[in-house]
Amino acid sequence: MKTITKILTTTKRIFKDRESAGNELATYIGNELKGQPLDNAIVLGLPRGGVPTAFCVAEKLSCPLDIVVPRKIGAPGHEEYAIGAIDENGQGYLNQSVIEMMGISQRYLHQQIELEKKESQRRRSVYRSGKSPIELKDKLVILVDDGIATGSTMKAAIESVYSKSPREIIVAVPVAPDDTLQDIQEMKKVDKIFCLCVPSNFQAVGCFYKVFDQTSDETVIRLMNKK
């Protein structure tokens, strides 16, 4: 399995909002996959912020939209610092080197994994409004988020999708730091990575948007019901 990283620019650029970034990303994906049939493709968004971007990609490429709901595992006392992430089945990615360095116990990890697994299951049920997930076996899966920072949730999403035996996995995002993209590439579970902007000075995803307000549950549900 060969990973191809596509990067348009390494200079800082600003997207208007998640929707405009999604439209631009869709155009780029369409050009890169020109000649490749997309009738077997599925776009998966990462809630919440990734869903408006994924919705625009799915619309423009005429693909069905679904979600994968990874949940971040935070460090004890520093919940915003991700030491990994898991999906609704508890599958995902844990940064073992950081866990060992911080001396994090297996008991803490087990408790947090169970807690976030239940929250992932709850969100998946709410966002899908009772609809069954789309079968991913032998499909071309395009994983979309509004950007990647540390990569923990995207790595968990990749692990979740990979376990369902898709034909191909593409990660597509408007912006991400180069070292995180390299980490994802080294997983060897992704076939292609499309990123519109890989800045030399990355601080946070929101720094690359004019409008980066919080995406509500209601917005995610509304967009999911449109597809």
UniProtKB/TrEMBL annotation:
SUPFAM superfamilies: PRTase-like (SSF53271). CDD domains: PRTases_typeI. Signal peptide: none annotated. It comes from the Eukaryota. Pfam families: Pribosyltran. Residues 36-191 form the Phosphoribosyltransferase domain. This is Phosphoribosyltransferase domain-containing protein. It comes from Polysphondylium violaceum.
